[in-house]
Amino acid sequence: MEWLRPEFKDREDLLETRAEFEKRTGVTKQSLSSHFTRYADLVPDVVKKFGKQKWFLASELDDFIAWISANTGTRSEADIKRAEIARLTKAIEEAEERENRHKAHLEKAQADKTRHMRQRKHAESDLSFLEQGS
Fold this sequence. Notes:
four-stranded antiparallel β-sheet; 4 helices; single chain
């Protein structure tokens, strides 16, 4: 579990997932996801993550949906572009995180392969020596 906003640690009663938000408000996870895409520059910050699961401050999700309801149809082209840039920036950051995780796994696999090849070479050398003595 990764706390992105540690000031809310031990205050988990203030947090909720998208599914919990849907149960409480009736706003579907799909609708909320669409709003997250359309208004990416206004999305509340994630408080904690565990795998793909994310928790948000419930009051911030409420404020986010309330703002959308009050301002539907009032966004300028510049506002729409700002949201698109925010969405793409976040996508780039997530891709970089995945890339770094994959690099770490690749480096470990390469080190393991090198170690096993070295061990096999020693074992083959030992076998060759034993077979010469037979």
